[in-house]
Amino acid sequence: MTDTGKEKCAHTSLRNEVDQLRLSSNHLKNLVYSMSVVMSERMEHTQEYEALLTLFDTVRNHINDVQESGEKISELLDPCALEISKSK
Fold first, then answer.
1. Helices 3-42 and 47-86, interaxial angle, to 10°?
2. Do the Cβ atoms of 18 and 81 come closer than 8 Å?
3. What integer best gives the mean pLDDT of the chain?
4. Are 4 and 49 in contact (CB under 8 A)?
5. When comparing pLDDT for 71 and 85, which is higher?
6. pLDDT attached to residue 15
7. Residue 88 and residue 79: Cα distance in Å, rounded?
8. Per-residue CA distances from 38 to 34, 44, 49, 67, 82 (Å)
């Protein structure tokens, strides 16, 4: 396999990983949303509710961080893909 072929393969693998990361973060985001619906419908404003709300916010923030990282990696990959296609 040529260097260009290896670069293209590595780029494709990395792109697939980023796509999987995005999919996983979307699934987590949906799960967190479902949790918030259940919390708001089933729990009163108790100490447990406040603790779960804090946990919910923390998880949501981490999911947003993961999504932002995936977007940044994608932005970095785009110029690499262009360069690989030019070197053919």
1. 160
2. no
3. 79
4. no
5. 71
6. 83
7. 15
8. 6, 11, 11, 24, 46
